[in-house]
Amino acid sequence: MGLTSTWFAVVLLIAAVGAVVAALLLWAKVRGPRAVRTVARVGMILLCQATAICLMMVLVNNQYGFYASWADLLGDANSGGGGTASAAHPAVTPAVPDYHVVFGSYSAGFRRATVRGWHSGSKGEVIVWLPPQYAAKGYAHTRFPVIEVLHGIPGTPHSFLRGMRIGRIMAGEIAAGRAEPAILVLPTITPDRVDTGCADVPGKSKVATWLTDDVPTTVAANFRTLPGPAGWAVMGISTGGYCAARLALDYPHRFAAAAALAPDDPAHGVRNPLWLARNGRPAAHILVESSLQDRESPPKFADAIADAVRPPGTVSTVQLTAGGHNWKTWSRMFPGALTWLSGRLEAPRAVPLAPSTAP
User: Fold this and answer.
1) Helix (H/G/I), strand (E/B), else coil: 47
2) Which of 29, 55, 104, 347 shows the smallest number of beta carbons within 10 Å?
3) CA atoms within 13 A on the CB side of 54
4) β-bridge mates for residue 146, sequence order
5) Which pTM was predicted?
6) What's residue 2's pLDDT?
7) Residue 268: which H helix or E strand, with range?
């Protein structure tokens, strides 16, 4: 039974209610010495509390998508990735890496696959959302722009499906004519279960290579995408927002624009956004959104990025008057951010750039 399945939540609800009912029915019927009765009744109380706590934890996780599966919760979601291979079965790297993988159907409009990072040495989950136009007959030979969407920590790509319903938001912006049809790519930002701030850190994880090389190359090999940088953008929330700003500044040849929503402190971390902006003049175009009530990502973080970036780079800022560091606030930021990014990306091309075998 899956960690996020409705049936698991129902079972826990039944267990929580059953524990309370059992305690009420059995409380006066406990027999034996006083110490035995006390222990039995304390056990009933603890059982009621334990089942209630488990139920609440599962409901909160289902709402915000912190953990997508039992493997993710227990630390095995990305096993077999960047670690060393066993001596009996050493990993073999082919002369020509094969980026074609099977993205299986996951949810309405979403597909999912475990992707091997040939250059980063990592392995992790990547979820892809295809706009309704992708499968339409009139778009059969059209290539689409791509937006990489980065989750926060704790969190997984799955967070955007439950915490925000990102597919519905994007479909609504496209239907309203505020955004061009685009492919959304939701990769894990911790393929080796290490938070590096999306940087390559020797001895830990090459997350920057994973996000700017392995993931884009795999997606391009399996879907009809426009080439970067004009056809690619990156956005994220919280730690993912920090990563979006950092990657745009460090890899302007990969991304045309970035949207950082409620980013972490841009002054912290390896090759952090402020350091990158002050030690170069990358042609990065960044939107930073914040909320006056967000104590974890106050507007001063957006102001610091805006002050550090110099021409030809640009920074636009948006401040909400209310809202904390949570999905409700981010959901209000996303429509405008998607529209902003769409205006800086190349529109879908009706004529393929080159013969493509991508479906």
Assistant:
1) helix
2) 29
3) 18
4) 183, 232
5) 0.80
6) 66
7) none
